[in-house]
Amino acid sequence: MCRIAGIIDKSAPLKQLEKDVKLMCDSMQHGGPDDEGFYTDESIGLSFGHRRLALIDLSSLGHQPMQTREEKLVITFNGEIYNFKELKTELLALGYPFQTQSDTEVILAAYQIWGTESFRKFNGMFAFALHDHFKNLTYLVRDPSGIKPLYYSTQQNRLVFSSEVKAFEKTSYQFPEKQEWKIYFLAFGHIPQPFTTLQDVFSLKPGNFLTWNHEHQTNQITSFEPISPPKVVGSALQAADQVRIKLEDAVNCHMVADAPIGVFLSGGIDSSIITLLADKKTGRHLNSLSIHFGEKAFSEEEYQRLITAKTSGVHQTYLVEEQDLKVNFETILNAMDQPTNDGINSWFVNKYAKENGLKAVLSGIGADELLGGYPSFNRMGIIRVLKKLPAFILKYCGKLPSEKLKRIYYLSYQNPIGEYLFLRGFYIPETIAKILNINNKEIDELFEAFPIDKKVSQLNGAERASWFETHIFMQNQLLKDTDFMSMSHGIEVRVPFLDQNFLETIDGIAPQQRFPAEKKGLLIEAFKNILPEAVWNRPKMGFSFPLQQWFIKGGQISNEEVYADNQFAIQQIQKFKAGKMHWSKAFALYQVFRKN
Fold first, then answer.
1. What's the whole-model pTM score?
2. CA 468 distance to own-chain centroid
3. d(CA 542, CA 399)
4. Tell me: the pLDDT tens digits for 177-213?
């Protein structure tokens, strides 16, 4: 895992290109502490940059940007290709002359043999820029699950790209603030793709590649997302067998590294399964780590111990206290590439992974979204009933006293994004309008026009909920937060539940088996033979910190001077201090009003 950046601008002087890309990469050094590299082609105004976190082929041969022997292709790559050895064997049989042991070279070789069809062959997490000198084209490519970030801007006949939004502001170009970002953030709790905090800087859609034509200075975006397979798995027993086999395969290939790798164990179902499977693969060589709290209501230490008692590796556990948040709060804020109402937990666990000498950690992200682990899966029937009500009644619900019921307002939208905001939204439009001193109609129009994949309209029930949780919540919140928080410590987080082969298996399971009455029942059934009952037969806790009391006591986000010009915002903060508002809402307000 690394950090990448680049600029294509025929009109820019060479020194400016080199300086800008160097500044972009310097700003992301935390995510690539092991090496840096640059490639420039003055004839087409192209400059690529790379910051390296070395995990496969630690030698200098893995240096990037990397070129083919004939220097006709060049790549700057962030991520891991887990099936690179299998692809390499296939490419060797076709006569490709490899010079390194890296997965980066496999991408170059695959493209040289198969062209853009090669993008479908990669099982991994990836974001890369690849320049084809022969075709005079450059590609930006992002993995189908959106695990690795890739941002771009195509204004004024130039292409600028980076792993982080903040890097764009290091260039000599002007990227003004996007005015609407605060609306999105206060509604979603994150900034949903394709939008960012900067005008004309976008997140490349997962499973898509952007083609830049150097001759005409134009671009086109093309999908290479996998086609959903037919629902061929119809029996519960067959489904459980497939899940067990494919997830174990996924964990095994995610353990491939030439540097220390471990597992984050929260004590919940998902991380416990990943830990047990990783232990089966590596035995006493497995490094695992956990976080616990003095506040017993938030601590899962007893469940962590149940799992570590079944493993043979080295386990480290860390106590996080209020003082740790107080000392590190500004550092945590600065680690955020984009505003988020979450991510604090991820910052801490990656901090301890770094202190533990690890370079990569496996995580259980994805299981809840794919297999029905959230309350949203039980609320789709309620949505179907409520949406039959007249729009004026749904809008009126925004005036109800209950904060949860106020979200019914979002169901008045024709756009399906209203359903997601009903399930997971933060502030409703009326409240956002008061916070930002804007017109409520402006917010309604913005969300009605929200770009959402047409595929969601073809889904119903639990499959529709899974799409919302996977493509909006997970991709925009969990994966984004995990990426920039882990990379701030120079740690790579791998997510076996998002392995492409595992996802294909899940997609092929009939909804009745994939989403049984018991939450994540399919996953539990698949691993009952190794998972202690005390871990799976209990209420879901989620990986959360005691931030409500810590923030109220510490006062980091409740200083009313921060909100001095907005009486309504101050009223909201006073509600938080009185214990009548969730900390995440107050944290979102703080990020909107704080001066950077």
1. 0.95
2. 14
3. 30
4. 999 999 999 999 999 999 999 999 999 999 999 999 9
